[in-house]
Write a structure and sequence with these properties.
Layout (H helix, E strand, L loop, with lengths): L2 H4 L2 H30 L7 H13 L7 H17 L10 H13 L2 H22 L6 H80 L4 H26 L21 H10 L3 E7 L7 H21 L4 E8 L3 E8 L18 H12 L3 E6 L5 E8 L5
Parallel strand pairs: 1-2
Antiparallel strand pairs: 2-3, 3-5, 4-5
Length: 394
């Protein structure tokens, strides 16, 4: 809403209260006038008008002093009843409004005690001081019922407001929890990206550095080539790490230009880089190659990268196989190595659920709607198999 639309609402809101009290005073005067016309006493209208004016004037402070205002309106209303005016809803208007406001804002015990006290005093005054000859229902039951009705209406409205406030707070907490859940998921995704990129390139760089150390004296030319490849490996690691860390920056950063995410099209570069570290990888395709979505393509690449990185770190072998099987509805990726039985280094986990690498691969496969299994082969070595959907869910 614009500022020009809000400005006129101030005077209107300030005038609403006096106009409402003036209307209530008019109704109370009408109640006094009705008593003068219907019954013989009271014979004058002005005492009732004065009491009605006093009750309506006290309503100005009903939000700051609700109990005092209720006492004042009760006294003025019952004084009018003691003078012979009929306790009609019109005459009792100030009392009913004060009791409604108290029941709306006060605690339930306080509102209950005040309502019962006012109802009891009203019934006693009506029974003892109202003009004789009037029916008991009209003289006692009717004003008492109006008092209880005003109290119940105020309590009901207060409960409804409390429930609405609590519901709004619950919805706000649910929205905050949903936002926090998305933040946690994004952090986990960034953590997986950093783990896959850094772990792979560091393992590859470590293998290349070790090979260069062994070849330094006997094959200086090969050592020079190995060091050049090591420099490229570390540069690639830095690029991928910077690209992932930029996701944590503000969207307004004009210098944040993310590098394209890798995919299966970069498998040849990955295999060539692993060859410099002493791991020969054989890639075989089964079926016609089909394009994947960006998310599924990145997931497939990261699974192959992590599995081959684990081979370089944990397997006592220089060979690994990557098999891509394209089916009508899924892409099956199988990575195996032929480590002889009993040659796994001590301390290397053998269960597929241990280690962050296997956990990250499984989470990636699940996030793409696929599955992943990993475990030792009966004939020796290790196998990682992932199935990623190629349909709309990918």
């Amino acid at each position: 809403m614009s500022r020009t639309e809000v400005a006129p609402a101030g005077p209107a809101r300030r005038l609403r209260e006096p106009l409402a009290l003036l209307g209530l005073f008019a109704l109370a005067v009408a109640g006094c006038f009705t008593s003068v016309l219907v019954i013989e006493s009271p014979r004058s209208l002005w005492p009732g008008v004065a009491l009605a004016a006093a009750g309506c004037a006290s309503l100005t402070w009903r939000r700051r002093h609700p109990l005092r205002v209720l006492a004042a309106t009760t006294a003025s209303t019952l004084a009018a009843g003691g003078l012979g005016y009929l306790l009609t809803p019109l005459l009792m208007g100030p009392l009913l409004l004060a009791l409604y406001d108290l029941s709306l804002r006060a605690s339930r015990p306080s509102a209950r005690v005040a309502s019962l006290a006012v109802a009891t005093v009203t019934a006693v005054v009506a029974l003892l001081l109202q003009p004789p000859g009037q029916p008991l229902v009209l003289k006692v039951v009717n004003p008492t019922a109006w008092v209880l009705l005003a109290a119940l209406t105020g309590s009901y409205t207060g409960v409804r407001r409390t429930l609405a406030t609590e519901r709004a707070e619950q919805e706000e907490r649910a929205r905050q929890e949903e936002v926090w859940r998305h933040v946690i998921q994004e952090r986990m995704r960034i953590a997986r990206e950093l783990h896959d990129a850094v772990a792979h390139h560091l393992a590859l760089a470590n293998a290349q550095a070790s090979t260069a150390t062994h070849l330094f004296r006997s094959h200086p030319d090969a050592t020079h080539e190995m060091l050049r490849t090591l420099s490229q490996t570390t540069a690639t690691a830095l690029r991928e790490m910077k690209s992932t860390v930029r996701l944590l920056r503000q969207d307004s950063d004009p210098l944040a230009e993310n590098a394209p995410a890798p995919g299966l099209a970069q498998l040849d570069d990955l295999i060539a880089a692993l060859a410099t570290a002493g791991l020969g990888v054989t890639l075989t395709l089964d079926g016609e190659r089909r394009p994947l979505t960006a998310g599924a393509d990145l997931t497939a690449y990261r699974i192959v990268q992590e599995a081959l990185t684990n081979v370089t770190k944990h397997a006592a072998t220089s060979r690994a196989n990557v098999h891509l099987a394209y089916r009508p509805d899924a892409l099956t990726i199988t990575i195996t190595n032929d480590t002889p039985p009993g040659s796994r280094p001590a301390g290397v986990p053998t269960e597929p659920t241990q280690g962050f690498g296997l956990i990250g691969m499984r989470e990636r496969a699940h996030s793409a709607g696929g599955t992943l299994s990993a475990g030792p082969r009966p004939e020796g070595g290790f196998r990682v198999t992932a199935a990623l959907p190629l349909g709309p869910s990918s």
